[in-house]
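Obj: model holo form, ligand = flavin-adenine dinucleotide.
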Amino acid sequence: MTPHAQDLEAFRADVRAWLGANVPPNWRETVAASSDESFRRFQLEWLETLRSGGLLAPEWPVEYGGPGLSPEQQIVVHEEMARYPAPRLGLYIVSLYHVFHTLVAFGTEEQKAQHLPAILQGEIWCQGFSEPSAGSDLASLRTRAVREGDEYVVNGQKVWSSYAMDASWCILLVRTDPEASKTHGITFLLMDMKSPGITVKPIKQATGNQEFNEIFLDDVRIPVSNRVGEENQGWQIAQVTLSAERGPGAIEMAERLGAIVERLRKETVLRFGGADRVPAELARSLVGYWTRAQLLREMCVGMLLNPGASPAGDYESSVFKLVFASTLQALLHEMLEFADQDTFFAADPLRGEGFDSRNLLLDYLGSYEWTIAGGTNDIQRNLISERVLGLPREARW
Ligand SMILES: Cc1cc2nc3c(=O)[nH]c(=O)nc-3n(C[C@H](O)[C@H](O)[C@H](O)COP(=O)(O)OP(=O)(O)OC[C@H]3O[C@@H](n4cnc5c(N)ncnc54)[C@H](O)[C@@H]3O)c2cc1C
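Output (holo structure tokens):
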């Protein structure tokens, strides 16, 4: 091993030991049984534990209060979190990734000083981008902001805003110039969720969870000092916010996918009474899932260590999302077919663990959010087709 690799292995051993000593042993039971309030408390306690162990926000540099890890160390942290497996910080994803990258790129010194330390203390943010008629075509958004003195007065509606019911702040896209072309009249604001005129209504999902919300905005006043970047520069800023989803967190997703494949492999061998007895068709499927999980993992490592080196360039995350979503859905479908029906609901659903809650039916239903979240699969196909392969553009009406 090179000295560098030795250091990394020592670091990995430290992270693993730390997880062993600090992940609450019964966290799955705690989270499964928790009310909204105790879930929030659990997430905050886990955030504080990670912070005290120097493992919160592995991507944040020291100047913003992060641990200042190298990309290789960040990969190790995400891999070990997934392998342990440790609880995910679902409530804080928008804060730790989207808001962080946006403020670092475009925020004022005052905005960074106010919010980045607060995020490390557990400030929860939500994202108010989508609207009833503006999802894939986000630039059609209609929530209107009119400037009055040193405030914007905002009216409109947002939808699908994850964890808005818990958030103290919201990153909000508004239309400030209705005369300009769609992408040129949008402004990016930071909205205090305690402002008068905000109504948050939860939406019940097929899984029974209520993580999404509608946000109604009725004459909400937002100080101009809460604007990120210039007026009407919001579209450009939102691209940075959305690209924050391509971070090393994807490694954790690929690892968790690999762990599900391993569970299916073990169950299969057990069910058929030995590896030699697993039917060839099932063995072929397992090899396919395992291979795709490994390729996705390698792809994430490549994205982090050699950004832009892939033939897909900036659109490698689109490739990741397409392959990840289809693999996860096919894998969970196979598990459902394979599992005894009594075990579908065997485990209590775990809040905030997405497709890895261990309640098979809910995980399967939840896996379909990957077809939609962060830009639908159809949109990713359009991007790859037009911008990577140079195929004809879709019709613009
Ligand atoms: C888990 C999850 C979390 C989310 N969290 C948030 C959040 O916190 N904040 C937020 O603002 N939003 C959030 N969203 C919303 C998400 O960004 C939108 O749902 C997504 O952009 C799709 O928009 P839409 O739902 O309006 O569907 P539409 O855009 O109306 O699409 C409907 C269908 O038409 C297809 N379609 C649309 N346009 C095209 C095209 N040009 N070519 C081919 N097919 C097309 C789509 O693929 C889809 O199948 C979240 C969504 C999910 C699933």
